[in-house]
């Protein structure tokens, strides 16, 4: 997968769009994800549209073009491979590897990316459980559902966590809400109230916002 060099800020926007869903992403959500103003996000979208990386549909949002998707998955591959290296090889704390990998992804040449993949024996997922695109940009989608979609009394296994903010990841880590752990939804409070979970035998109360980052499979 050959993608021409892009600026760090451009790569961050493209990656954030891919993480949010690729198509019809609201610019306000993108701005929130990247902690920038709506004005800055709108200006960047105009630049990316001029480069042929995104399309903008009024009242719907922005979508990645084929070229934009290729660039985005290229960044995601680098970033998630670095997550694996930091967590598996350097034993960096789970909650911190996303942030640290983000600092490395922009300075990684293609030959380094593929050497890293080879060294790690071509992992399929990152430590957060999210799929790693292959060298051709193909990324197998997760087959799971949000924790917020579970019903009281259901059991499931955590498949992935798609949060990116270190404080959120730390919050989930401290409550053992990690890929591979088993959970039972004991109670869902009415009126958008919190969820009461049994996580690996431990009772955990979790707000809906945080629960929305957790993907499970039955």
Question: How would you portray this structure in words?
Answer:
- The chain has 2 domains: 1-141, Winged helix-like DNA-binding domain superfamily/Winged helix DNA-binding domain (Arc Repressor Mutant, subunit A); 145-217, Ferrous iron transport protein A (FeoA) (SH3 type barrels), CATH 2.30.30.
- A hairpin with a 3-residue loop joins strand 1 and strand 2.
- The chain is α+β, with helices and mostly antiparallel strands and 218 residues long.
- Helices cover 41% and strands 17% of the residues.
- The longest helix is centred in the middle third of the chain and has 24 residues, at 66-89.
- Helix 1 (8-20) packs across helix 2 (27-34), helix 2 (27-34) packs across helix 3 and helix 4 (66-89) crosses helix 5 (97-105).
- The protein is globular, with a radius of gyration of 18 Å.
- The strands form 2 sheets. It has a 6-stranded antiparallel β-sheet with strand order 3-8-4-5-6-7. The chain has a two-stranded antiparallel ribbon with strand order 1-2.
- It has helices at residues 8-20, 27-34, 38-50, 66-89, 97-105, 110-119, 166-174, 208-211; strands spanning 54-57, 61-64, 145-146, 155-161, 182-188, 195-199, 202-206, 214-217.
């Amino acid at each position: 997968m050959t993608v021409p060099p892009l600026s760090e800020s451009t790569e961050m926007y493209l990656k954030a769009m891919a993480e949010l869903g690729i198509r019809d992403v609201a610019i306000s959500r993108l701005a929130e994800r990247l902690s920038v103003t709506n004005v800055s996000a709108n200006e960047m979208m105009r630049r990316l549209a001029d480069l042929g990386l995104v399309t903008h549909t009024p009242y719907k949002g922005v979508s990645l073009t084929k070229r934009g998707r290729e660039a985005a998955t290229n960044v995601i591959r680098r970033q998630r491979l670095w997550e694996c290296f930091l967590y598996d090889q350097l034993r960096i704390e789970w909650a911190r590897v996303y942030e640290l990998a983000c600092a490395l992804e922009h300075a990684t040449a293609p030959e380094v990316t593929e050497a890293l993949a080879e060294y790690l024996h071509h992992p399929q997922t990152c430590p957060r459980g999210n799929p790693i695109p292959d060298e051709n940009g193909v990324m197998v989608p997760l087959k799971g559902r949000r924790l917020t979609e579970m019903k009281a009394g259901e059991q499931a296994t955590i498949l992935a966590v798609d949060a990116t903010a270190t404080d959120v990841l730390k919050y989930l880590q401290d409550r053992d809400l990690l890929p591979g752990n088993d959970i039972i939804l004991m109670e869902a409070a009415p009126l958008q109230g919190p969820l009461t979970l049994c996580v690996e035998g431990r009772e955990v109360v979790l707000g809906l916002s945080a629960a929305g980052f957790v993907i499970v499979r039955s």
